[in-house]
Specification:
Elements (H helix, E strand, L loop, with lengths): L20 E4 L4 E5 L6 H4 L5 E7 L3 E3 L4 E6 L5 E5 L5 E5 L12 E3 L6 E2 L4 E5 L1 H7 L5 E5 L5 E6 L3 E3 L4 E7 L13 E7 L8 H12 L4 E6 L2 E4 L3 H6 L7 E7 L3 H14 L23 E3 L1 E4 L2 E8 L14 H25 L2 H14 L2 H12 L4 H18 L3 H22 L12 E5 L4 H5 L6 E6 L7 H8 L4 E3 L3 H4 L6 E5 L4 E3 L4 H23 L14 E6 L2 H9 L5 E5 H4 L9 H15 L4 E4 L27 H6 L1 H12 L7 E5 L5 H15 L7 E5 L2 H5 L1 H5 L4 E4 L1 H9 L6 H4 L7 H16 L3 E4 L10 H6 L4 E4 L4 H9 L3 H12 L4 H12 L1
Parallel strand pairs: 21-22, 22-23, 23-24, 27-28, 27-34, 28-29, 29-30, 30-31, 31-32, 32-33, 33-34
Antiparallel strand pairs: 1-14, 2-3, 2-13, 3-11, 4-10, 5-6, 5-9, 6-7, 7-11, 8-10, 12-14, 15-18, 16-17, 16-18, 19-26, 20-24, 21-25, 25-26
Helix pairs in contact: 3-5, 6-7, 6-10, 7-10, 8-9, 9-10, 14-27, 15-17, 17-19, 19-20, 28-29
The protein binds phosphoenolpyruvate and magnesium ion.
Phosphoenolpyruvate (PEP) binds next to strand 28 and helix 23.
């Protein structure tokens, strides 16, 4: 099949006798062939044939009367359909998705009918020229199976409205049929945390092809064949998008049911990582400094080393289909074993990333596309690039930050496999001691190859704060700035620079005073870290002697062991759902007991708070299917799910009670909104224990209802632990997984703090302790306020234990109480943060 036309649903209204369609120039600028576009996706016509314009104007207008099919959330691209059915993609500039909508103003919406010449998008051309890869704008006909380009403007200047391209419809017989016979359709909300990316697309295609029916998926009026993974990727279907599955043919109904079932319940995915507050560029930039975005905080002084990696050159022609096919199979097998071996030896985010790479390498759709290109005579390396790169680019261009993160992983796999095929090993980079590595971009495998003992920090021209390289750097504590842009390209090798990642600043030519100041700060931080670690084993008390329990949040026995090494006094939150993510069936009692026992053993006598399964919302579990919901965060979640599945609840409680010694585990119920839910869990627990109250049962306070009603709940609970991640989302009515509101999602909002105060007050009325296990407990600025509000237990990230313990040790509780009172009176979260920074000085 022609890659350009793969899977497009053909408009049925095209008549053979239709006259040519004229498209007029949608931009003022220099028209040229697609071959001139410095991006293989367009130059090799992977999305279709067309022309490009290097704009001189700032307004994109409609090239014909049309309906707007899709607009990208970041407003840098638009798709249109002409009345005759020709579908057009206009993509303003290259890599402009990375601007995140800055400099673009969308003047129309999906579904609008527009007339030729009507303004569609206004943009800041200067900004694009300064910050994007290029301003050149491809204009592409994406349903080339239905329309061919007859004439095109000669290279040269065009004004909007000038003749640009004419299209002829192809004969009806050449058009892919959508199927005959009965039809069926169903609209669902996509629960997959990362939307329909390569792996789900491949599974859907596999299922759809098993039925005697033509199956399509449609989003916002754009439809593609469900047999085409590449087509499905081009729809950019994200978590919670509405998707219509339609089929025509003898087995239409069964096909729709099977595809819907697969998408709703049949695909296991890691849950989406909770949104982090979007770091911002500093506005106050001292002279000689470059502003970037913080990916991993920290301060480093060092010597610039560079690693600029070019695309590997690959021949287009193969040396025989059989030889290329054999080389491809062998390279895939070798890379796959290497990834498996590295994953087996890794843990944490590194392991998750290696597993993701291995899964992508096993993607049948990708492998199939590469093999088809080899069969067409291309070299294996060219075929692999042609298969994987459009998918990476489609993800990056889709405007969904989480899907875009996967694009770097695909580029990484592209490079690793091509490297093997061409016999080229990335030579890596030899770092001087204390290097600040400057790179245009960095791939996860390249980060893994760095000598971290010599690396003081990372500074990246492009990149994003949530890319896998950023996650790896943060996990290894390497101060990292990304998106530093063009000025970083001019910093010379061997320059002595300061990377102030926490402040978002790269001092390229620091003055002696700035250098001296940074040296003093680095020395102080190092001493503080060493002291904190040395004293991590001490009991946690404030300066005035108040006992605070300092626990850690864990998701595995390995986390627990690491937490103990860092001085944790117990585990304040075991996220049990993390233990059983990668399975199709619920874990049985024996398995659960073994896993909980392993955590208890790793804690070596310290207490463990086991949270009952917290599934639903942003945490799907394949073995506990939940029907698609309009508002998953407000639907079946936490305790509501286990109450709806009594056997799951009973099994989990039985498993916890079987852990020895009895009583070492406390039980915690997530997402409580009212006393009745707690009483139902307590009734099952009482039945299992015969009423012996020798195991504590507490609740998580994650809803405003639980916080305001804490005294009522505490009458039946042994303790309260505040989940500030959810409490913040529900108090501020901001979805914790929605990047659009991530910048304002701050647990230091005074309304959240007031609810924390209410919880402590309600708990105290019933003589119950209140802790915090949400991520606010790991935030050094928040800790004095939390303790000032009366919180007596903190459960923090295992790596944060020494630092938070040291902070508590220096804290005077009376001062913290005054500080907390002042915080409650602040008008907003930024004012609280300002106050907290002053308090910390
Ligand atoms: C919370 O909501 O703060 C919490 C600790 O639970 P989770 O992040 O697992 O939802
Ligand atoms: Mg929660």
């Amino acid at each position: 099949m022609d890659r350009r036309t793969a899977g497009r649903l053909t408009p049925l209204s095209i008549g053979a006798a239709m006259s040519p369609i004229t498209l007029t120039a949608p931009l003022e600028g220099w028209a040229g062939p697609l071959d001139d576009v410095p991006d293989a996706v367009f130059a090799e016509r992977m999305l279709g044939d067309g022309l490009s314009i290097d704009p001189t104007g700032d307004t994109l207008v409609a090239p014909c009367d049309a309906v707007v099919l899709t607009v990208q959330p970041t407003a840098h691209a638009i798709t249109l359909r002409s009345p005759e059915g020709a579908e057009l993609l206009i993509h303003i500039g290259l890599d402009t998705v990375t601007l995140g909508g800055r400099g673009f103003e969308m003047l129309v919406a999906a579904g609008d009918t527009v007339t030729r010449g009507q303004p569609l998008i206004r943009f800041d051309l200067d900004l694009i020229v300064r910050e994007a890869r290029a301003a050149v704008t491809p204009v592409v006909v994406t349903n080339g199976e239905a329309f061919a380009i007859r004439t095109r403007a000669a290279p040269g200047m065009v004004a909007t409205g000038d003749a640009f391209v004419t299209l002829s419809p192809l004969a009806q017989t050449a058009i892919q049929a959508a199927g005959d016979g009965p039809s069926a359709a169903r609209t669902i909300t996509v629960p997959l945390p990362h939307g329909i990316h390569a792996r789900p697309a491949a599974r859907i295609a596999e299922v759809a092809k098993g039925f005697n029916a033509a199956v399509t998926l449609a989003k916002q009026g754009a439809a593609v064949s469900a047999s085409s993974p590449v087509g499905m990727l081009s729809l950019i279907v994200a978590h919670n998008d509405e998707l219509t599955i339609a089929a025509t043919g003898p087995q239409a109904e069964a096909a729709v049911a099977a595809v819907a079932e697969l998408i709703l319940h049949g695909i296991e995915e890691e849950p989406a990582a909770p949104a982090r507050a979007a770091p911002e560029r500093p506005t106050d930039v001292p002279e000689g400094a470059i502003a970037g975005v913080t990916a991993a905080p920290g301060l480093a002084i060092g010597t610039v080393a560079r690693w600029d990696v070019q695309d590997l050159d690959v021949p287009s022609e193969g040396c025989g289909i059989a030889a290329e096919e054999a080389a491809f199979t062998q390279a895939c097998a070798a890379l796959s074993s290497e990834l498996a071996a590295k994953a087996a030896a890794a843990s944490g985010p590194l392991r998750a990333i290696l597993d993701a790479h291995a899964a992508m390498l096993g993607d049948d759709a990708l492998l199939g596309a590469a093999r088809a290109a080899i069969a067409a005579g291309h070299s294996a390396a060219h075929a692999w690039r042609a298969a994987i790169r459009p998918q990476a680019d489609a993800l990056r261009a889709g405007g969904d930050a989480r899907l875009a993160e996967r694009a770097d992983d695909m580029r990484d796999l592209e490079r690793q496999l091509i490297g093997r095929l061409m016999g080229v090993e990335d030579s890596g980079v030899t770092l001087p001691q204390g290097a600040i590595l400057v790179a245009e971009d960095l791939l996860p495998s390249q980060f893994m190859a760095l000598d971290l003992d010599r690396l003081a920090g990372l500074a990246i021209v492009k990149g994003g704060p949530t890319s896998h390289v950023s996650i790896l750097a943060a996990a290894r504590g390497v101060p990292t700035l990304v998106a530093l842009g063009d000025p970083l390209r001019h910093v010379p090798v061997a320059a002595r620079v300061i990377l102030d990642a926490g402040a978002g600043l790269f001092h390229a030519a620091p003055s002696p005073e700035t250098l001296a100041d940074a040296e003093a700060r680095v020395a102080t931080a190092a001493t503080r870290r060493a002291d904190a670690l040395a004293r991590a084993g001490e009991e946690c008390r404030t300066a005035d002697g108040t006992r605070i329990e300092l626990f850690a949040n864990c998701g595995s026995p390995a986390d627990a062991a690491f937490a103990v090494k860092n001085g944790a006094e117990g585990c304040g939150l075991l996220r049990t759902e993390l233990l059983f993510l990668d399975r199709d069936t619920a874990p049985d009692v024996a398995e659960q007991t073994a896993d909980y026992q392993a955590v208890v053993d790793a804690l070596d006598g310290r207490p463990l708070i086991v949270r009952l399964l917290d599934i639903g919302g942003d945490k799907p579990a394949p073995y506990l299917p939940i029907e698609g919901e309009e508002n998953p965060a407000l639907g079946l979640r936490g305790v509501r799910v286990v109450l709806a599945h009594p056997q799951i609840l009973e099994d989990q409680l039985t498993a916890i009670l079987a852990v020895r010694p009895l009583g070492r585990c406390r039980i915690m119920v997530p997402m409580i909104a009212g006393v009745d839910e707690l009483l139902k869990v307590r009734a099952v627990l009482d039945r299992l224990t015969g009423g012996a109250r020798d195991v504590e049962l507490g609740v998580m306070v994650e809803t405003p209802a639980a916080a305001i009603g804490a005294d009522l709940i505490a009458a039946h609970a042994d303790f309260l632990s505040i989940g500030t991640n959810d409490l913040t989302q529900y108090t501020l009515a901001m979805d914790r997984g929605n990047a659009a509101v991530a910048g304002a999602l701050d647990g230091l909002h005074p309304a959240v703090l007031r609810l924390i105060g209410e919880t402590v007050r309600g708990g105290a009325l019933r003589e119950r302790w209140t802790g915090v296990c949400g991520s606010l407990a790991s935030d050094p600025l928040a800790v004095p306020i939390l303790l000032g509000l009366g919180v007596t237990e903190l459960s923090v990230a295992p790596a944060a234990v020494p630092e938070i313990k040291a902070l508590v040790r220096d804290l005077n509780l009376a001062a913290a109480r005054d500080h907390a009172r002042a915080a409650l009176a602040c008008p907003d979260a930024s004012a609280v943060r300002r106050l907290a920074r002053e308090f910390a000085r």
